[in-house]
Design brief:
This protein has 224 residues and is α/β, with parallel strands linked by helices. The protein contains eight helices and twelve strands. It has two domains: 116 residues, Rossmann fold (3-Layer(aba) Sandwich), CATH 3.40.50; 91 residues, Winged helix-like DNA-binding domain superfamily/Winged helix DNA-binding domain (Arc Repressor Mutant, subunit A, Orthogonal Bundle), CATH 1.10.10. The strands form three sheets. The protein has a five-stranded parallel sheet with strand order 2-1-3-4-5, sandwiched between helices. Strands 6-7-8-9 form a four-stranded antiparallel sheet, with helices on one face. It has a three-stranded antiparallel sheet with strand order 10-12-11. Strand 6 and strand 7 form a beta hairpin. The chain binds calcium ion. Calcium ion binds next to loops.
Length: 224
């Protein structure tokens, strides 16, 4: 099945270059030029992935990301004009899964899209429910509950928690998590990305679920 991508970008030249490249690479691409149009387009198209410019008319990429993710989980790749860490951290906190800093080549962007989609679609190997204190993780349905309440995690948050939960008690370094979960192998990402997603998971699931092992990385479960 052809994978659907929504591009939300107000600069027509960039939007056209991105759309042309992605179409040439076999994706079904729809384009919106402002924030509200992007949210509406995602509602209609139900894309597999959204490419989101940060600075948009109407409302900005952060708000589009928030609204789109609130309706249904979807992979989000953010385009930022500045390499400012604050933009990137806020974007990742709001549910973006990866980002590309302008200027970029459409070819590079398409490669990042392919990597994200591979990761997003990768089936979880274990179907058994994983229990972490009062948190339950169902790999097959990608659902998470805390107590009796269902908790909404972004695809990346879910993958990060699953990766940690696959080896309870084991400490995984930020670099290892970046390589496994983001498929970045360190290139383009920073270990701050991992920290930001861990912080988001703690806000949603409580502080007890993921332990910080100072100087080493993160773990779930008791030390083995
Ligand atoms: Ca813009």
């Amino acid at each position: 099945m052809t994978q659907r991508i929504v591009v939300v970008e107000d600069e027509p030249i960039i939007a056209a270059a991105v759309a042309d490249r992605l179409r040439a690479d076999g994706y079904d691409v729809s384009v919106a030029a402002d924030g509200p149009g992007g949210v509406e387009l995602c509602r209609q198209v139900e894309p597999d992935l959204v490419i989101l410019d940060l600075m948009l008319p109407g409302f900005d990429g952060y708000e589009v990301c928030r609204q789109v993710q609130a309706e249904r989980p979807v992979l989000v790749l953010m385009l930022t004009a500045r390499a400012e860490e604050s933009d990137i951290v806020v974007g990742l906190r709001l549910g973006a899964d990866d980002y590309v800093t302008k200027p970029f080549s459409p070819r590079e962007l398409s490669a990042r899209v392919a990597a994200l989609l591979r990761r997003g679609l990768r089936a979880s190997p274990a179907a058994a429910t994983v229990r972490l204190g009062d948190v339950e993780l169902e790999p097959a349905s990608r659902r998470v509950r805390r107590g009796n309440a269902e908790v909404h995690l972004t695809p990346t948050e879910f993958d990060l928690l699953s990766r940690l939960a696959a080896r309870p008690g084991a400490v995984l370094s930020r670099e290892q998590l970046l390589a496994d979960v983001w498929s970045w192998n360190g290139a383009g990402g920073t270990t701050r990305t991992v920290d930001t997603h861990v912080a988001a998971l703690r806000r949603k699931l409580g502080d007890a679920v993921i332990r910080t092992v100072h100087g080493v990385g993160y773990a779930v479960g008791d030390p083995s």
